[in-house]
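[audit] Reproducing an earlier prediction to check determinism. Same input, same settings, fresh worker. If the tokens differ from the archived copy the diff job will pick it up downstream; this log only records the rerun itself.
[audit] input (393 residues):
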Amino acid sequence: MSTTEAPSRDELVARVTALVPLLRSTADRAEEERRLAPEVIEALTEAGVFRLRTPARYGGYEVDTRTLVDVTTELGRGDGSVAWVAQVYTIPGWMVGMFPDAVQDEVFATPDVRVCGTLSPSAAARPAPGGIVVNGKWGFISGAHHAHWQMIIAVLTPEDGEPYPVMALVPMADLDTVDDWYANGLKASGSLTTIAQNLFVPTERFLPLPAVLQGQPVSSNSAKTPMYRAPLLPVATASTVGTLVGLAKGGREVFFERLPYRRIAYTGYESQRSAPITHLQVAEASQKIDQAEFHAIRLAETVDRKAADGSPWKLEERARARADVGTVCALAQSAVEIFASASGGASVYRDVPIQRIANDLRAAALHALISPTTNAELYGRVLCGLEPDTPYI
């Protein structure tokens, strides 16, 4: 083990800001290939992106959530799929810290290790000597092409007692993959399907999912680390909002890049930027981005503050964490739709980035843990004094 002094937030943000031109230049090819370009993976590695949530005792940066939001916002400005995969790696990567130290030693022995995963219990497990045997499959595994490990969820049926969900760490080499990611948004995220066939998982590499959802690490080292003093869902939602804000900011940037050269066809406006309707559109969209950023920062700072002081999470705070990510998504999507609708007929061509950005946000809004309507309903339910109807809170 080695402890590395983490770069400052400003330094990490500067590193990824410098990558934005590369991300934009490779975005079209990555969409065609339905996975991130190798040079992008290499650049992210060099920038330290895959060390953001690795514990310091393994040479990682162990950054706070606010830093993660700022970094993924910059990546999202460049390419939504890149930011999406990067943020996905940080969530299962954080979940590794829930496991015993010996398991962490094994996973983090790989420099810049990349862990993909899911929270869907779409597989079955049965007891076996020294562990469990898993059969099943998982969809939407973003970043699977470039991952070393996958965090899987399965329902374990013990010999005695009721079935319950478990979370397990599995080497990617032990899984089959189905290259079925043909999507309309986040096309380069490589979110394919993985399959386990009679896969043995040793006892030390699986944990009860409810304990993980509550943020209860087995590792005594992790228990002392502020980064792990939070339930999983607030951590996951806070890890996601930067990508959404970054996409919205990227949409605004590409709109303004085209603005000086555009007229409004069949009108007297030789310059679109002279039209009052344009002024109203860009003001409304920009205010929505500001509002989205407020919710993103509030969520990240809440996670960091409570992690620092170790204070317990109230049910309302947990529900608001999910509401915040939904609100960020809704505002970001609405802002980009305004810019897209104001971009003219030529914007339907694939080489105009606004269409890709809009599609990426539409895809993100469909994610079960981001869905604005689902999360708003959950928050309202809790505010009305009812119990949540889901363990994912």
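[audit] rerun output stored. Observation attached for the diff report: The CA atoms of residues 42 and 48 lie 10 Å apart.
[audit] end
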